[in-house]
Amino acid sequence: MIRVVLPAHLRTLARISGELELAVEGAPTARSVVDALEARYPTLRGTIRDNLTHKRRPYIRFFACEKDLSHDSPDAPLPEAVAAGSEPFLIVGAIAGG
User: Fold this and answer.
1) What is the pLDDT of residues 72-94, one digit of tens each?
2) Residue 34's closest CA among 4, 66, 10?
3) pTM given for the model
4) Using only C-alpha atoms, what is the Rg of the chain?
5) Which domains does the chain have, with CATH numbers?
6) Structure confidence by residue, pLDDT tens digits, 61-72
7) Alpha helix locations (H) across the chain?
8) What whole-number distance in Å separates Cα of residue 64 and Cα of residue 30?
9) Cα angle vertex 32, ends 29, 33, to 5°?
10) Less packed terminus of the chain by CB within 10 Å, N or C?
11) Are 33 and 89 spatial neighbours (Cβ–Cβ below 8 Å)?
């Protein structure tokens, strides 16, 4: 099971609280985690990645094991600690301002 932490606004949209666990087939990747997340919570489709291109939205970031994975290939394997469930996969809403 992959542990996933979502920002508050996405937890509200999906009507969940706290951290969640997802079953992912094969070696977990950012793509497979988001696929499983959208399958389980259809209201999140289009919020994390574009519906047509499936590219990560600009103000959404992926983190795991204190590393920013946002610019890694979506098919790159996630760290072993995430695959083992000892560390969460974090989906974070980035903040911009001027």
Assistant:
1) 999 999 999 999 999 999 999 87
2) 4
3) 0.91
4) 13
5) 2-93 (3.10.20.30)
6) 999 999 999 999
7) 8-14, 30-40, 80-83
8) 10
9) 85
10) C
11) yes
